[in-house]
Amino acid sequence: MVRRGMIPVVALLLHGGCGGSDAPTAPRTATPSATAHAAPVLVFFQRQGAGGATLDTFTVRRDGTATLQKRYGGAGGRFKELELREGSLPRLERALAALPGGTTLTRGSPPPGGAQYLVRYRGRTQTGRQGAIAPTARPAVKLLDGFIDGIGVRRTTRESATNNP
Fold first, then answer.
1. What is the total count of domains within the chain?
2. pTM for this one?
3. The domain spanning residue 76 has which CATH number?
């Protein structure tokens, strides 16, 4: 994925240094997928083990755009650039503000076989286990977990897969 993303950048850099060309260039316009990475990251969320050998990550940026990466235990993955539904970002920010201190979101003994979560917010990384998430962390985890499943997502602006270039 990184190599494929670097090819256009390298091509642009090489083209820019090639000297004068009389060929007209297309005007540059901002598109949601082109500007999506410009906004700073609000939160990074990872869900591992839900529904088999999966590793799902969801990164929300401060402008309400997000990146979803779904990986399937060596069988490839899907990657999407998304926009959250109106109202989802403020609700998420309130839920994140209520996260407990410390490094764990787990309280008690979780049942076996559940998903494991990782939340990176405001320079702090916290982990938790499905079925034993602290009450103050449940709203944030529920929202982030739902985003991975498409709940609260307005639309997909770009999509790719490792087996489908």
1. 1
2. 0.73
3. 3.30.1560
Q: Is residue 24 part of a domain?
A: no
Within a domain: 17: no
Q: What does each C-alpha distance from 156 to 66, 75, 81, 153 come to in angstroms?
A: 9, 22, 6, 8
State the SS3 of 35-49: HHHHCCEEEEEEEEC
Structural domain that includes position 60: 38-161
Which of these, 72, 73, 145, 137, lies nearest to 103 by C-alpha position? 137
Residue 147 structure tokens? 């985003």
Instruction: Note whether residue 22 is domain-resident.
Output: no
Q: What confidence tens digit (pLDDT) does each residue in 75-115 have?
A: 678 899 999 999 999 999 999 999 999 999 999 888 888 89
> Per residue in 31-51, pLDDT tens?
344 444 579 999 999 999 866
Residues 6+ apart with CB under 8 A from 71: 54, 55, 56, 77
Q: Which two tokens stand for residue 126?
A: 């916290």
In-domain check, residue 29: no
